[in-house]
Amino acid sequence: MRRKTGIVIGTCAALALAGVAGVVASAGTDDGAAETARPAAAPVARTPVTEHGVASTAPAARRAAPRTTAASPAPSITPASISPSAPQSATDARPGVTGGTAATGETARTRPLESATTRGTGRERIGRLFEVDKLLGYLAGPQRQEFAYPGASYVKLHFDRLTMLPGDYVTVSNPAGTESYRYESDADGRWAMSITGDTAVVEVHRKVNPLGAGDVLGGLGVGVDKVARGDRRETLETRRESAKRLPAGPGREESVCGSDTSTDAVCYESSDPAAYTKSKAIARLLINGTELCTGWRVGAKNRMITNNHCLTTSDEAYDTEVWFNYQCAKCGGFDVFKPTKVWGDQVLSTDKTYDYTLFTVDGFESVQKFGYLTLDTARPRRGQTLYVPQHPAGEPARIAGSQGEAAGNCAVDNPDYTGYAAHSDVSYFCDTAGGSSGSPVISRATNKVVALHHFGGCPNSGVRGDLLANRLRAYL
């Protein structure tokens, strides 16, 4: 079972910072070089959605593992969309090294995806991936190993081997033991849940075995082959400031239109409690260890939604972390709530033209308390004032669009805008950034979602909520 994390207070600066240096059990250099750490090979292209379904990237044994998900209808397959019942074919891609190709179309080819700083994907990169070669446990190596990357906002390990005797298990935790996750044997390996902070501790726990029975068996051990670590906040801010100096247009992911008026979500707690409460339903998606989008709970059931250019398959969802309550505790302060992290699970429906993916999470009971959002079934109106809760550039949750005159340009500019299809989008000038892909664009009048944000460029745009409500009615 995957273990859930409770909510505690940490240090906002430490959580937002991310290290460039990387070490395994000892300090390294600024370029991440350690004795066994080296930059990972470039990701291979992700299999795109086709009218016949989606190619799976997980080993067959993992795909067959039982998953607890809510029952869902199985609609007919249409071009550029899938459902879980679509036929699948296996590929030889490995979790953590797969990339993706952002959807394209004639009408949207010159529009920059909001989270498109990762080459070959539509996702914002917020960290670096290193190859390591560490074997733990039994006769192969130590029982305990630290992976330290000074200044990192998180450290995330990938196991290529989890071969243990019955009853033995592995934990990955922070040094204090206040965040910890347990893993059993897994012949195919897997990503571990990220550890907040700059150090992850891996420990093999064994049943009492005084005679060493089983140690002589070949192939036993726990192998770590990749480590992802989050960028420093200075790196993210430099990237953000550089993007502000670029004109709007192709390739621009930063989409602050004028001065950035977005603020920490908690700043709205007393002045705009409705917006603050709604912001709790959004989540930061950590994909492939180093890539970021935003997602949110849609409806009361176990349903999450993000962009198709963020993830498309159940195999990708399975290795995606979903962080709820990643928010600063005080307006403009340094304390942050420790996020409640769960895994993505099953993709229920996805569509390239309307740039959405609907999926479930594992451990839904631990995130129900954060509430949910509702799609507005009415077509957006010009001038309708908006607000956008989001995780721009991997930051703790922020909200663009204040009440009254302070709302500025955060309003519907064109309710009949062209996205990947004519009439598919609504445009606005609400401030967003790389990593905001998949954020809800919410009407102040109704507190319902009028658009699923996906394009930057000033004006920015999102897929109309009324269109999504109609397409997803059977699932919600």
TrEMBL record:
Compositional bias of kind Low complexity: 36-107
Ranges annotated as biased composition (Basic and acidic residues): 231-244
Lineage: superkingdom: Bacteria
SUPFAM superfamilies documented for this protein: Trypsin-like serine proteases (SSF50494)
Keyword list, A-Z: Signal
Signal sequence range: 1-27
Gene3D superfamilies xref list: Trypsin-like serine proteases
Region annotation Disordered: where it falls in the sequence: 36-124, 231-257
The keyword Cell wall biogenesis/degradation belongs to this UniProt entry's keyword annotation: no
Name of the protein described by the UniProt record: Glutamyl endopeptidase
Species, as recorded: Actinoplanes utahensis
